[in-house]
Specification:
Layout (H helix, E strand, L loop, with lengths): L5 E5 L1 H10 L6 H10 L4 E5 L9 H10 L4 E5 L3 H10 L3 E4 L19 H13 L3 E6 L3 H10 L3 E5 L1 H9 L2 H20 L3 E5 L7 H5 L6 E4 L1 H10 L1 H15 L1
Parallel strand pairs: 1-2, 1-8, 2-3, 3-4, 4-5, 5-6, 6-7, 7-8
Length: about 250
């Protein structure tokens, strides 16, 4: 029996639009308040090394604005660890980060980076922050998450989203099965599986229907839709589609 599926809304790109003019409008805090008002389950924000969207000063304001849990996405660096320990978000999702990329282009190599990640995971967990690893839906990466003691993994759904856009039915089926199989394996091993990246109204339901997945994190698409229909309507529609899939 499927449990309830949470929707975490990533508000990074509200800040991207704000930063394009260098002022304070549109305010990502207002976006967080709207998400809370329409039944969103959490706020996700990625504080990047180059501060291209969310800025340091936004974090405390976002946390103060709503009672929703903050999922802070961050790179595995000492600077970001210290920021997380200072702000104490509900969750910290460790993601790969390259300065030249437009957006996160794949999962974290939790296996190859084990020694770098272990002290960071430990310090976050010791501070009472729920650690998540943004990984590919691969057994090797899931085993690494287990060794690291991460209670949550978020599966990168980018390849699935690309296959959907390309109309590649065979690849789409493979990617969906891969994510479903790894979600089942994660749950069997006591890790809570989440998913995100590239999810839209059109492609979200097969992912949402995977019974073990507990949370979807969706941002860019919702902020893009909000330009046309408003953020409230965009979040409500995504929520409806997710609920219908369950």
């Amino acid at each position: 029996m499927s449990g309830p599926l949470r929707l975490g809304v990533n508000i990074d790109h509200v800040a991207t639009v704000r930063n394009a003019r260098g002022g304070d409008h549109p305010d990502p805090v207002r976006a967080a308040e709207i998400v809370a008002s329409v039944g969103g389950d959490g706020i996700t924000a990625h504080l990047r090394e180059d501060r291209r969207h969310i800025r340091d000063a936004d974090l405390q304001r976002i946390q103060a604005a709503t009672d929703l849990p903050l999922n802070l996405e961050l790179a595995a660096t000492e600077e970001m660890l210290e920021i997380a320990l200072r702000h104490r978000p509900h969750a910290a999702c460790i993601v790969p980060e390259k300065r030249e990329e437009r957006t996160t282009e794949g999962g974290l190599d939790a296996d190859g980076l084990h020694n770098q990640l272990q002290p960071i995971v430990t310090r976050l967990a010791d501070a009472g922050i729920r650690v998540s690893l943004f990984i590919e839906a691969e057994e090797r990466q899931l085993e690494a998450a287990l060794r690291l003691g991460a209670p949550v993994v978020e599966f990168h759904t980018g390849e699935y989203a690309h296959a959907f856009l390309d109309g590649d039915a065979d690849k789409l089926a493979r990617e969906l099965k891969r994510i479903a199989d790894m979600a089942a394996l994660a749950a069997k091993n006591g890790i809570e599986p989440h998913a995100g990246h590239g999810l839209t109204y059109e492609n979200v339901q097969p992912i949402a229907a995977i019974p073990q997945i507990a949370e979807l994190n969706i941002g860019h698409y919702l902020v893009g839709e909000a330009i046309f229909v408003g953020l409230e309507a965009a979040v409500r529609r995504m929520r409806e589609l997710m609920d219908a899939a369950r």
